[in-house]
TrEMBL record:
The gene is ubiX. Dimethylallyl phosphate binds at Y168, R184. Residues 11-189 form the Flavoprotein domain. PANTHER family: FLAVIN PRENYLTRANSFERASE (PTHR43374), FLAVIN PRENYLTRANSFERASE PAD1, MITOCHONDRIAL (PTHR43374:SF1). FMN binds at G17, A18, S19, S43, S103, M104, G105, T106, R138. This is Flavin prenyltransferase UbiX. Belongs to the UbiX/PAD1 family.
Length: 207
């Protein structure tokens, strides 16, 4: 008797209004490419960010960017205003959540557990259920308020991953800088991938 392959639990991906839309689009594309179900939540400011930074003005345009076939198979979209949607419940089992990019306002809300939106409620759920939560923050410089909020969410179990690409791999294209950050997000979510280049790869013929 053959058994159908087990579909991995979905990863919640939230896009909020910090600068960093290319990270969000690349991460979504990588998750779809890895055939991981994605529960996607884009805040109002997240949509504004996508349009401003990468020219994606709607969900349909984002679907076209990712590819209709992969999108329709792996991506489920939820309205950020719907705090009763599936990501809002701990009984809906997920593989964790990433907020990419994560604004300082969203960080503050998550650190305080205010849950004013689906993004914030979903993050609250992931923390209380002891699942992975990755916050890809993008702000500079950081105030003491920002730093204290980062400390608070880290103590609660989240991982703060600033969108701060390295340069030791000698990037020559913006895409390589984006991949640097996205690769580390995927590692933290335990997603197999071939995004970017790991330290030492290419020096001894490794790929």
């Amino acid at each position: 008797m053959t058994h159908a392959p087990t579909v991995p639990r979905p990863i919640v991906l939230a896009v909020t209004g910090a600068s960093g839309a290319p990270y969000a689009v690349r991460l979504l594309r990588a998750l779809v490419g890895a055939e991981r179900p994605v529960w996607l939540i884009v805040s109002t400011h997240g949509f504004r960010l996508l349009e401003t930074e990468v020219g994606i003005a709607s969900l349909d345009a984002l679907r076209d960017e990712i590819g209709a076939e992969g999108w329709d198979r792996w991506v489920t979209v939820f309205d950020d205003r719907d705090r009763g949607a599936r990501p809002a419940s701990g009984s809906a089992r997920t593989a964790g959540m990433v907020i990419c990019p994560c604004s300082m306002g969203t960080l503050a809300a998550v650190s305080q557990g205010t849950s004013r939106s689906l993004v914030e409620r979903a993050a609250d759920v992931v923390l209380k259920e002891r699942r992975p939560l990755v916050l890809v923050t993008r702000e500079t410089p950081l105030s003491l308020v920002h730093l204290e909020n980062m400390t608070r969410v880290t103590r609660a179990g989240a991982v703060v991953l600033p969108a701060a690409p390295g340069f030791y791999h000698r990037p020559t294209r913006i895409e390589e800088l984006v991949d640097f950050v996205v690769a580390r997000v995927l590692d933290l979510l335990d997603v197999d991938h071939a995004v970017g280049r790991r330290w030492g790869e290419g020096e001894t013929g490794e790929e």
